Amino acid sequence: MTDCRICAGPLTEFLDLGAQPNSDAFPRPGETDGEFFFRLAVGRCGSCTMVQLMEEVPRERMFRRDYPYHSSGSSVMREHFENTARQLLATEATGTDPFVVEIGCNDGVMLATVSDAGVRHLGVDPSQGVADQARAKGVRVRTAFFEEATALDIAATEGRADVVYAANTLCHIPYLDSIFRGLDALLKPDGAFVFEDPYLGDIVERTSFDQIYDEHFYFFTARSVQTMARRYGLELVDVVRLPVHGGEVRYTLARPGARVPTAAVAALLADEDSKALAAPATLERFAAEVRRTRDDLTALLTQLRAEGHRVVAYGATAKSATVANYCGIGPELVSVVYDTTPAKQGRLTPGSHIPIQPSEAFSEPYPDYALLLAWNHAEEIMSKEREFRAMGGKWILYTPKVRVL
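The chain above was modelled as a monomer; its predicted structure follows.
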């Protein structure tokens, strides 16, 4: 792909992370033949500055019936989404018979709070497994991909929405033209589209290149979102920096003139301009830091194994597929990955084929070193695994620099 998916402007590639598998496709031992790979490379649009993948992976390959990520799997994220739901109920769903729609509702962790409040709602998610879990929580779910046709049907059958919300979902969807046409049909005249996704500013600052994988197609900034919103007939009216998932921004879009943009919008735009966040030189420096991280991490792991240390990893995250495959980390460097998700246990990491075991086995016995792949949950994990440090174990982190704790 050489043209921007938003404005058809020219894309310039600045980072190539090599051949990568589907990040959430965990094969069983002995079933790795025919594994899907694609070239994971990132480019910047010279017209609207939107940073995006150079190649698109078909959505059916990523968001399958057995999609293994569960938003409720982290206590931090459960609390985050419960608080988000309460905030939306207090600020957006305040009229008579309010209606809340969530794009990519996953296992219903956010909408469960909306449901418990007795507010009319609907989740839209293409993955049957997590949708069924949401229904078990009392959440109404339509199993489908959200696009213009879906939105038109919801508006016709359910009425227009006071707020449409999406978390870690919009950046997954290359076909945003269809999404925004659907939002135009679905939102009430004074309704809002609220979404939160990984922030390019945090990715660059923390060299968190593992935020780049097949499911993350776009990497938003306030500037690129503002430009995108205008193109599709909406206005950026608020931004909120969030600490979750390694740094995100929550964006609020509304119809032009419906709301006065907050001071936070101007402040974040000015901050991005002062840092030249989306400038080619900034992104080239980021790419150089990524290559340095790769070299430092593989050198450290190679040295530790040569010295006879037992090295494992913690957290079979989607983002860890990028780290393992870009850095060439396989079972010869990291013997096993421990993870809390039952659907991943007993399987292998995508592409790198490191065995995955339950996190309960982490202490049987403790390793010498543990590569923390789920670094965005570092505080939660390190608190849970305090005994590992007490027994002399050391954590390995790689953002923003490779270091041992």
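Residues 135 and 243 are 29 Å apart (CA to CA).
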